[in-house]
Design brief:
3-stranded antiparallel β-sheet, alpha+beta, SH3 type barrels
Length: 75
């Protein structure tokens, strides 16, 4: 699952290729939103953990993982 997270005062979005399911991601976000200073913790496909302050999030876009095409075949 690919997540794009828009952050306040950041010119670029944070992109995470997560190993978590949609339900797991929603549960993690709901849990983090319970605390005004909550931190959303995500696991990516490379074994890293990404932590984001929820009060800085402006939007989250979720998409199913798709195969990325490289080169002239992607046009």
């Amino acid at each position: 699952m690919e997540l794009k997270i828009g952050m306040q005062s950041a010119p670029r979005e944070v992109v995470v290729d997560s190993t978590q399911s949609l339900d797991e991601l929603r549960a993690a976000l709901d849990q983090a939103l319970l605390d005004p200073n909550g931190i959303l913790t995500l696991d990516d496909s490379n074994g890293r953990q990404i932590m984001v302050f929820v009060h800085k999030i402006t939007y989250i876009e979720l998409t199913e993982g798709t195969e990325r095409r490289i080169g002239f075949g992607s046009m």
